[in-house]
């Protein structure tokens, strides 16, 4: 795990050398990642690190710092606090909600529980019309979510904005470009929040707007060439999903035939997946792909395991064992060892898997992040580790990857193993796989595939009574899931027409042995997650 942390900080340092970077220090707000996204939307690169980041350990200098919101109270025992060296950086600072309360705590400790919580919309009234932070945002609706409040102005600060319930809705240092706001500009409910963040990043921090995918391609190809050197060879974990296909294409552009793509058939892939991927990547994109059938190995290790986190870790570890064996087998001609492993890890995989990005909770261990071996020999190259899914798709289009590949629904590495709830057996996988195939086929036929962000079938470990051909049946239940989302961090369920669901349900019960009932999952994320495990 610690090696991964190192790998990630090296790449942040590299990216930040080329692109002006705003540092977002995360205090655990559910919206923190949105701050990063919004900034990138207007081509300013931003990177999120935990609020506990030691400033002296940063290997790059940010153009500005944003302190995020968070679920804690600054005055509570054990509440997270920023390293005070952040002020020595001498760059502009913006505190959002908890971030503002933290600025106030440091400058006079005048923060306390409010009489009532303030959650929802408020109107922003700008007091200091000359403040560059609020240019173009006066009288707009802003989104509040707090229970604590400032009881007075922090020492050395002035009020620059108010709202009906928050007399200190906006504050600024009298002498330095340090600002605090009580509301959340990063959520879309704050109508002009993006303008405010733009004012901060561009007018106040003077960050340049050069974060574009075209620039990223050049930078990343050069970076890969520098890391790998002129002769070393790289193996890549390629699944046929968007992320690893884009990563593989980038690697191929960077080092040509020194790249060996490997797809692992882990026994829990979708119907005909291995053949399809081999065809699409090999013939379609000229990527040298080998499919390794390790299905028995995976299924044997999964025997008797029902805990979702255990399944994920077993699969993550087994993937690495297979890659290490392959690296041995492919040994380059000059006798050197294969040193590097390419993975298509994305930013949300990292945020959700490891709570090192601040005191937010680990939700689930993505197989390619938290499921890795501690003592693994191969060094990771993860060119997409800083990107969101929509950025990766844009990158894929720029690299000339066909539409159908770029817009494929994501499919998790642990695959059907986390869609068969309970113990994973060959028979259970076969049922889930067939139901999933029918469901997706119907979605494609109905012209809905591109409207849905992700859809799949899950097999539940419960039995239910049914009647078929006058016979009593007592078989399992399939749950269908389909969601709409932009970044997979939050999601809503897809509103199918009733007729569509009726058709899918009837096909599944009729065509898949072992299923007596079909249900449709109508839970958003949060509170649910996309996958059932
Ligand atoms: N069957 C597999 N064989 C080889 N590598 C895999 C396999 N499944 C997943 N991986 C590796 O794990 C990474 C993370 O998986 P993930 O599903 O998040 O990405 P993806 O499959 O590339 O894209 P998508 O999210 O669109 O499915 C992949 O990018 C790839 O490097
Ligand atoms: O490669 C992956 N390895 C994993 O371990 C994993 N877990 C979830 N996912 C995918 O991530 C997105 C968000 O899913 P959750 O809301 O279930 O966390 C959805 O797109 C999920 O399919 C994974 N992908
Ligand atoms: N959204 C936030 O940052 C909330 C900050 C703090 N926990 C409060 O309730 O005021
Ligand atoms: Mg995948």
UniProtKB/TrEMBL annotation:
* Cofactor(s) listed in the protein's UniProt record: Mg(2+)
Query: What does it catalyze?
Result: XMP + L-glutamine + ATP + H2O = GMP + L-glutamate + AMP + diphosphate + 2 H(+)
Coiled-coil segments on the chain, per record = none
- Cite the PROSITE patterns for this sequence: GATASE_TYPE_1 (PS51273), GMPS_ATP_PPASE (PS51553)
Q: InterPro entries from the entry?
A: Class_I_gatase-like, GATASE, GMP_synth_C, GMP_synth_GATase, GMP_synthase, GMPS_ATP_PPase_dom, NAD/GMP_synthase, Rossmann-like_a/b/a_fold
Any idea which positions bind ATP?
Answer: 239-245
Which major enzyme category is it? ligase
Biological function: Catalyzes the conversion of xanthine monophosphate (XMP) to GMP in the presence of glutamine and ATP through an adenyl-XMP intermediate.
Instruction: Read off the PANTHER family from this record.
Output: GMP SYNTHASE [GLUTAMINE-HYDROLYZING], GMP SYNTHASE-RELATED
The protein in question is named GMP synthase [glutamine-hydrolyzing]
Q: Which organism is it from?
A: Saccharomycodes ludwigii
